[in-house]
């Protein structure tokens, strides 16, 4: 079972964090507070997050500098960042946010429904990626087991069928999500992330299809990995 996704909320004002928690509580995910850029970077050292809501105007390390640190780290560079700001300095200010690696830039006061919908898209994409990693891990374990057993038994054939069925379920969900994003003309970053997920699924499907008990290709696939 996939655990709840973690959403990082970064703002130096407690009342703003409280408001974000009230808006996002309906998503039933784990909300993690950070009152500064430094505190956010510490949280990112140990936990995985589906999305980061990052206030731009903060004393000390502001949102732009915090985002730059996040994007420089291998572990965190792909986490979507939604900038939140109470000040709108025009197109140049917005461009700076996107240049810092944000997938969206929202001015306060924002529509709670819109913010919740945007965050839910990235949470769903994160969940699909978690499912994909679990399936890939299970596949690797089964490949290692088949190498030790030498030869393909009925049990291994049944295992491949089960893996194929599980992968098919994830593929169906990913396809539905991609269609939903395209139909709703959601953020380009979300659409691109969904397409990337589908490409990963295609690669996993090819590897699974290559595991034909009659051809001995399981060992071949394993050696390539």
UniProtKB/TrEMBL annotation:
Residues 160-187 form a coiled coil. The keyword Coiled coil applies. Pfam families: Response_reg (PF00072). Gene3D superfamilies: 3.40.50.2300. Keywords: Coiled coil, Phosphoprotein. It comes from the Bacteria. The modification 4-aspartylphosphate is found at residue 55. Residues 6-123 form the Response regulatory domain. This is Response regulator. It comes from Streptomyces werraensis.
């Amino acid at each position: 079972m996939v655990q709840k996704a973690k959403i990082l909320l970064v703002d130096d004002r407690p009342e703003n964090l409280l408001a974000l928690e009230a808006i996002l509580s309906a998503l039933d995910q784990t909300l993690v507070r950070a009152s500064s850029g430094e505190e956010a970077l510490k949280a990112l050292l140990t936990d995985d997050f589906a999305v980061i809501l990052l206030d731009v105007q903060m004393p000390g390390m502001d949102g732009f500098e915090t985002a730059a640190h996040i994007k420089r780290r291998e572990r965190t560079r792909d986490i979507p960042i939604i900038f939140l700001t109470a000040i709108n300095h025009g197109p140049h200010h917005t461009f700076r946010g996107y240049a810092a690696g944000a997938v969206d830039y929202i001015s306060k006061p924002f529509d709670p429904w819109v913010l919740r919908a945007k965050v839910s898209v990235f949470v769903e994409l994160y969940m699909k990626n978690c499912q994909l990693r679990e399936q890939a891990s299970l596949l690797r374990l089964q490949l290692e087991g088949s190498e030790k057993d030498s030869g393909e038994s009925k049990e291994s054939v049944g295992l491949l069928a089960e893996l194929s069925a599980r992968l098919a379920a994830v593929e169906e969900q990913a396809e539905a999500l991609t269609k939903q994003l395209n139909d709703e003309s959601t953020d380009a970053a979300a659409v691109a992330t969904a397409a990337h997920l589908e490409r990963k699924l295609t690669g996993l499907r090819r590897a699974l299809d290559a595991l034909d008990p009659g051809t001995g290709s399981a060992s071949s696939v394993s050696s390539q990995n």
